[in-house]
Design goal:
Layout (H helix, E strand, L loop, with lengths): L2 H17 L7 E3 L9 E4 L11 H15 L3 E7 L2 E6 L1 H11 L16 E5 L11 H19 L4 E7 L4 H13 L5 H4 L3 H25 L4 H7 L1 H14 L3 H25 L5 E4 H4 L4 H10 L3 E2 L5 E4 L7 E5 L7 H15 L3 E9 L3 H13 L8 E6 L2 E2 L15 H19 L7 H21 L7 E2 L2 H4 L7 H17 L25 H11 L1 H11 L2 H21 L8 H24 L9
Parallel strand pairs: 5-6, 5-11, 6-7, 11-12, 13-14
Antiparallel strand pairs: 1-2, 2-4, 3-4, 8-9, 9-10
Helix pairs in contact: 1-2, 3-19, 4-20, 5-7, 5-9, 7-8, 7-10, 12-13, 15-16, 18-22, 19-21, 19-22, 20-21, 21-22
Length: 602
């Protein structure tokens, strides 16, 4: 039983004995910095059951806790808040119980429990990944890792949007203007080469629109009847009919894109357990239209189209099959979700990492799957996130004004290098060591800057601001980790070796008191397992990121106020080394679930 559970039970007992009243819940909160105490009980909610002065009630409960809970050494009451002070022995015992656990706060998946499938990335194959994809990938990957750390089995997946008019536009432009060039002949990554032809298509399309307008057509009519668009649409029809020449070109150009994507994913540090392709899933779901009609979930209109009426649920009517019998995206998503459960029978829920412009789509999808009777549909979650903006404004793929993911990763490493050189932090490093470190710092800055923000919020991304060695940034936290490694090296301890239990601060020794800064640091470490569970429950890497920053701030305050290697006794010195080591391991574990590396030197 945790200390808070013990106090919770004893507070209820105190109320029962003092006031002959049973209360069902006790409200706790963190003690405010200006007051002495470690745990605060809020008295005000009790006034619904107990008549009296909140200060007097708090004092009565506080006295009862001092008499009945060994760990409680004192208390103070401020208005309706009972601030409880916990003795140092409790924190010392707690620290000794977790100091040798390198995976403290992280739970291994339990056998027999349902797995979770996390979908992210899901790009179109007509262009390289850009800054928007970066946020998607970082969020999806991190949430998958957090769910793993919380004790869940996780499958990472994506559905690659490899069919449709978008890829036909790139294919047609390459046929017309490419002169047979390839990634090898141009030295370009395949996704970039294909993306260039998507931009080229748009340029030619706009020229044709202007020509048609000059001939007297309306703009709307010109957009619909531009010859290059009609040809792209015809190419799509040929692909759907299985035309050998079109399918061969489609396979070749998509192959280029996949190679490019894989290189970007590797550089970004994300991976997948399984892939789905829209070209293989776009016909899925049609069989469930018939089932939905039979069960009354769907209705057929007079023109033959099939709909799901969700008006009673506060939504609208949604088409699931056109009058000509073809499926829509919703049908495809229904079929894909069902197929995934068939492929992975242990999956009991799914997380879809998709921008907030699709909020309504997922409300409809989840509701339809529930109405179709799938039990697992209640465990579907849309990890909705806001756009990423730059100081220069919005990005547009068709016009080629996106921030390319590869260029961004390179630019972050370069910026990290410029700032590190300016600060003179890397004297004595070889050129290769510097380059490797710049990449770790640059990527860490990028990932942390994006992940520290609540997913639902829009981000204005400023690369230079993200690479700051002060404040709530990745490099600041990485630097603190590296500083601790330096302390451990000076103490002739290898930070990768668990410190012996014989060096623990013994509660039987004369030295059983803690410096206030030591105590605050242990209290912060103690929060880590709960933060991991909350982050998993809320699908929010921001909780982990900001917890880590708070831990680092607490360590730096400890470092500035307490001598570690110059402690008064050997026992005290060893304890502070162990405490520093535990902070470093907690930073490393927290950053690992965010997909961020920590450097041993910096």
């Amino acid at each position: 039983m945790s200390l808070q559970e013990t106090i919770n039970n004893q507070v209820k007992q105190a109320v029962l004995e003092n006031y002959k009243v049973e209360i069902t819940t006790v409200e706790f909160q963190a003690t405010r910095k200006e007051f002495a105490g470690d745990i605060t009980v809020v008295i005000f909610p009790m006034l619904r059951f107990i008549k009296g002065n909140p200060v007097q009630i708090g004092e009565a409960i506080g006295n009862y806790l001092v008499d009945n809970v060994n760990e409680v050494k004192g208390f103070n009451v401020v208005k309706g808040f009972l601030n409880i002070e916990i003795n140092d022995k409790y924190y010392i015992n707690f620290f000794n119980s977790i100091k040798d656990n390198n995976n403290y706060g992280l739970i291994k998946p339990k056998s027999g429990e349902n797995a979770v499938m996390v979908e992210y990335s899901s790009p179109n194959t007509n262009k390289p990944l850009h800054l928007g994809h970066v946020r998607n990938n970082l969020l999806g990957y991190s949430v998958a890792e957090i769910l793993k750390a919380s004790g869940k089995k996780v499958y990472k997946t994506q559905i690659i949007n490899d069919r449709g008019i978008h890829i036909c536009k790139s294919m047609l432009a390459w046929e017309r203007f490419g002169n047979g060039e390839t990634p090898k002949s141009t030295g370009l990554k395949g996704d970039k080469l294909v993306g260039n032809y998507y931009v080229k298509f748009d340029q030619e399309y706009k020229k044709e629109i202007q020509n048609l307008i000059a001939q007297g057509k309306t703009e709307e009519d010109a957009k619909k009847h531009a010859p290059i668009l009609l040809e792209a649409q015809n190419m799509l029809r040929k692909w759907e009919a299985g035309d050998e020449e079109v399918v061969s070109l489609w396979e070749k150009m998509n192959g280029w894109v996949y190679e490019g994507f894989n290189e970007t994913y590797k550089n970004l540090g994300v991976d997948f357990d399984t892939l789905y392709y829209e070209s293989k899933t776009y016909l899925l779901g049609k069989e469930f239209v018939a089932e939905g009609l039979n069960s009354g979930v769907f209705v057929k209109e007079t023109d033959g189209s099939v709909w799901c009426d969700l008006t009673e649920d506060g939504l609208d009517k949604k088409i699931v099959q056109r009058a000509d019998g073809t499926a829509v995206y919703m049908t495809q998503d229904i079929g894909t979700a069902i197929q995934r459960i068939k492929d992975f029978p242990d999956v009991g829920g799914m997380v879809y990492t998709v921008g907030n412009e699709q909020d309504y789509h997922f409300k409809v999808l989840f509701l339809i799957l529930k109405k179709l009777g799938f039990e697992w549909a209640k465990n579907l979650y849309h990890l909705s996130y806001g756009m990423v903006d730059l100081p220069s404004g919005k990005m547009k793929s068709r016009e080629g004004t996106v921030v390319d993911a590869d260029d961004l990763i390179d630019e972050m490493a370069k910026t990290a290098g410029d700032i590190s050189e300016e600060l003179g932090k890397l004297d004595g490093y070889s050129k290769e060591e510097k380059q490797a470190l710049y990449k770790i710092i640059g990527l860490g800055a990028l990932k942390y800057y994006i992940l520290k923000v609540d997913p639902k919020k829009r981000i204005l991304f400023d690369p230079k601001e993200s690479i700051d060695f002060q404040g709530n940034t990745g490099p600041f936290i990485q630097y603190t980790y590296a500083r601790i490694q330096s302390i451990l090296r000076k103490a002739n301890l290898d930070s990768n070796i668990t410190l012996s239990t014989s060096t623990a601060l013994s509660t039987g020794s004369v030295e059983t008191s803690l410096h206030p800064k030591e105590k605050e640091l242990i209290k912060q470490i103690q929060l880590f397992p709960e933060v991991v569970q909350n982050a998993a429950e809320q699908h929010s890497p921001a909780l982990i990121a900001n917890y880590t920053y708070d831990l680092v701030k607490e360590f730096n305050s400890f470092y500035q106020n307490v001598s570690i290697l110059g402690a008064d006794s050997e026992n005290e010195k060893l304890f502070r080394i162990q405490l520093s080591n535990k902070v470093a391991l907690t930073i490393k574990n927290a950053f690992s679930v965010l997909g961020i590396q920590v450097p041993e030197r910096m």
